[in-house]
Amino acid sequence: MEYDGVEPLRFEVLGLLRVRRGGQEVDLGAAKQRAVLAVLLLGRNTPVSRDHIIEAVWGDATPSSAINLVQTYVAGLRRALEPSRARRAPAELLTSVGDGYLLRLDPSAVDLDAFERGVVAAGRLRSAGDLEAAAGALDEALALWRGDPLGGVAGLFAEVERGRLQERRLAALEERAELVLLLGRGAEQVQELTALVGEHPLRERGHGLLMRALCQAGRQAEALAAYREARRVLVEELGVEPGPELRRLQQAVLAGEDPEPERPTRPIALPASAPEPALPTTPAQLPRGPVSLIGRDEQVARLDKMLAAHPSGGLVLVVTGPAGVGKTALALHWAHRVREAFPDGQLYVDLHGYDPNQEPLGAGEVLNRFLRTLGVPSADVPVTVEERSALFRTLVADRRMVVMLDNARGSSELLPLLPGPPSCVVVTSRRRLVGLVAHAEARLVELDMLDTDAAVEVLGRVAGRDGAEIGALRRLAVLCDGLPLALRIAAARLAVSPALRAAELVAELDDEHGRLAALGLEDEDSTVRAALDASRRALSPLPARLLALLGLHPGPDVTAHVVAAMAQVRVSEAQRALDALTAANLLSVGEAGRYGAHDLVRVYTRTLAAELAPAQRRAATSRMLDYYLHCADLADGLLPVGRGSVRVAPESVPAEVPRLTGAGDATAWLEAEQGNLIAAAEFAGEGVDPAWLVHAWQLPYALSRFFWLRADRVTWLRTTEAAMRAATSLGDPQARFVTLFNLGVALLQFHRHDEALDRVREALDVARASGDVKAQARALTTVGDMLQTSGRMEEAERHYREALEVSRAAGSRWAEAAAHHNLGPLYLAMRRYDDAKTWLRAAVRIYQEVGEQCGESVCHTDLAAVLVESGELAEAVASARTALSLASAAMSPYHQALAHDRLAMVFDRQGMAGAVAHWQRALALFTELNAPEADQVRARLARARAATTAS
Question: Residue 833: CB partners within 8 Å, gap ≥ 6?
Answer without folding.
Answer: 827, 866, 869, 870
